[in-house]
């Protein structure tokens, strides 16, 4: 059900011809109100794609009537022309929606329309195809269009990703794409979440930032940060119910967590999903720094691929951080076996069973009470293959 | 000629049986004076191997009579027993050298003997074999033993690495090992440099730090920092010549640079050597930060492996740094073709010839006049294979 699980939303996903292989490549999500509240979180990369620059501006008003997304081209590093194209995409979407007269939101304006793009960096979009695609998508808008929208934003994703959490009379749903360049703040991901809860944009913003901080921001598949990451949350208010903030925020977190897990499970070329749980840290920041350092250690990621519980590589990764710890108090467990105790050899590493896809590493810093969990993948020949051939 | 190119040094390299395959695994370098000055630079990893903790202490005196090195085991994360083993290794080396009575340095003391180890983390050394190996190495010490010493410190190195620079009547020579876990501050490298120049330990220290900062510290093959990195410089004074400091420092830099290049060329599984030159940075620190970020971008390293001039991945790596730059002023050249100009599409990427092993990336930050060069390698299926099978 994706973005159309919540009442008040319609969506479509179509093939506009941006992708040379003819696969679906343009998605549209429309908020039919009555409320038009929205919030967004964007990449922290300082090299931002044109659609990110555009959507960041648009979101300052706290209102969106629609989101138009394309795969097949990131429109990043495309200069002033790229930004003009993004602007033109929003204008065309507003015009096409207004011409269709499908809703009573009082008319669409480009300034209420977010644009998201994903694909190869440094290529201008074929705007004629984008314009015709927008007309086609508007014509196919449907309250059952969520799945098709989720399919149209795939790039190297092998599956489309959707999630829904039901509240008491209200719903949060969403779709995501992302398979490579998965890293914090955020991954190469486009995510659109919708809700029919009657929530204002400040509360949406607060709930969304709290959720992404502990979900998408802690998915670190390959340490590479994208230029296009966007996570949007739109509220239609169509349920006419305003949930308790904590209950609503938890639903948003749960949908983000589920989508984040789906991103990790579909990461390019990965054979293992690695859950790195840092415990007994002096601060949450320390726990995240240590988790990320472990997640980005290529040698460890290779070892996990080889089903080798090489805890020395965990310690060498911890040692590069500025977190509070004493080397001779560190403990490391891999799949439940404490292979490193007090910074030295612990239980028999031959007891570690690594045959399954999920691998669980616990790094005990013995320096406090804080914890954080970071997700990553192993490093495989398939990852190298996929990413050495992507743009050629 | 390696560490015995300079007068006043003897060396040996033998098979002590630490490696199960019977390859050479123990090296000894002895300074026969008359001067016994020394300096050292060590890993900045906070998880330090026992031999690093030992040698850091020993070097505080500014004097070394010998360095004993083993491959086949890093003696890292081995707790108090590991440190006792390092201490015992230095004691045994002093005893054996004193028993042999080969020199007139006034006798060897454990406190003047540095110990270096390399190999798998978390394994105690077979000390009986180490002790017997030390006796064997002392018996084979020779002013022509430099090559054998260089061979005995290899781990996954496919070739041994040596370098010599001649001054006016004096010499700087050295040997290095290192093929994986190559990263800054330093790489997984053991390096012993020797000179017969008559230089005091303060000048050695100054020259060595200046040299490693712009050579070994800028070799970043896989972003992984080791627990055992050690670079030592010993001066015998046997030439009885004290060169100008600048001339001496340049010779030390040249030897470090040559050995650093050899490390990159022999990096595990690598098919390309990538020279990342950051120019027009606001500061040298900015240039190094940007160079390192590019060097550690797995997606770019995969693209280079696929001979794909994917400059978008260079920009996305620059964008994650805190360096001074404006995204729309960035320029990137790959093998001489300015594929990115003003943050957008530049010259035709099809003009880029990437058939050769060396790849040259220039990142122009357009923010100042400083520059730095970082060396890295591509990411290959062979790297994954070597490092998924290393300890098993």
TrEMBL record, chains A, B:
This is Arginine biosynthesis bifunctional protein ArgJ. The keyword Hydrolase does not apply. CDD domains: OAT. It comes from Streptomyces dioscori. The record marks 118-119 as: Involved in the stabilization of negative charge on the oxyanion by the formation of the oxyanion hole. It is found in: Cytoplasm. One of its GO terms (biological process) is L-arginine biosynthetic process. It comes from the Bacteria. It is an enzyme of class 2 (transferase). Pfam families: ArgJ. GO terms for molecular function: L-glutamate N-acetyltransferase activity; L-glutamate N-acetyltransferase activity, acting on acetyl-L-ornithine as donor. The gene is argJ. Substrate binds at residues 155, 177, 188, 268, 387, 392.
